[in-house]
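Team,

Forwarding the record for the chain on the shared tracking sheet. I've put the sequence and predicted structure together so nobody has to dig through attachments.
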Amino acid sequence: MEVVMNRRLLVTIGLAAFMGGLCGAAQADKPLLRVVVEAGDVERVDTPVSMPVPPFWAQTLHGRPFHLEEVVSVGRVPVPAQILPGDKPRMCWILTGRTRPGDSRTYEVYVGAPPETPAVQVTADDKALVVAVGDDKVLQYNHATVPPPPGHSALFNRSAFIHPVWSPAGAVLTNIHPPDHIHHMGLWMPWTSTEFEGRHVDFWNLGSGQGTVRFRELLGREGGPVFGSFRVRHEHVDLKAPGGEKVALDEMWDVLVWNTGGADKGYYVWDFVSTQRCASSSPLHLPAYRYGGFGFRATAQWKEGQADYLTSEGKTRKDGHGTRARWCMAFGPTDKGDAGIVFMSHPQNHEHPEPMRLWPSGDIFFNFCPVQQKDWTLEPGRDYVFRYRLFVYNGTLNAERAERAWQDFANPPVVRVVREAN
């Protein structure tokens, strides 16, 4: 974990240097940059927005902090902002409050320390990472191996999954090792029916002994006023390869929790991105199969007759399986009140709008399955990216609100630079 902490320090220093030095000669009261955010055709409410950081900005680093201000009729209002690091860094903030369709809002970047803002925290120990907004836990990622209940084979040992997912009221919405499917692990993403080097490998049904998915390393974690995030690496392992285990697929998870909504407003928003790449010169073939990929097993409190689904196309438990949707919400009662999750698929995902596996009876299980209707082969040398967003809420939610959340994800507000410092 020391490597990660050092990385966080470097990112923090780099952030201050990066944005603080946009213009070495700039005065503290002179904006370094002015941008306009356009809402587009839909209403926006507390919507995450971002813009790419132009490469030429790095030419003027001087190590000073920065802050963002919104230009309003009565002056300027400080706005928390944060850099999302990476090969293509982005400046992120929240378009707070309501913004009507067709409206725009103006922001300026200034030199100077930002105001103190409650942060999204990402804490780690030898078993798990926990992301919290203030004091309220949002999710836990388990990097240590978790054994199955007593009496079950060690084949069901599993790491590299998310559980719990908490509602804003604090209810646990995920389930692991349920008696009917011991291999179900909260929120996880293995493939089921695959062909690798002439062998059938099932990474989902662990009891087959054919394959599994393991945590490999923590690549980074960030906390801050706008988001908290982490990046981890997984290995999809063929357990029956001649000569011993062989990694078939390398995978990175990028999980980011936005500082919008929160327990007081009754919802959380977080993003999940899986980037997969063949680990060798061998492709991984995915024959069409009814389930596999991004999966979610709900709390045991979500029973048949009490819990249900609703998709963007109006489908429910009785007729939703095998259909396609932009989003699907699953919901039901908990010991802390009703709660639900809207699962959203990004338009860039393979086979979007994606086919889904929904259980017509029993407990709640949800799966976006891009190979449900068509074969697909993951070829060496390419990255395959799967983007999802979760809107986790207390109480009940209507289709109109779910659609607006999806629009924020799929068609976010447009950010235009209208003035740069010279």
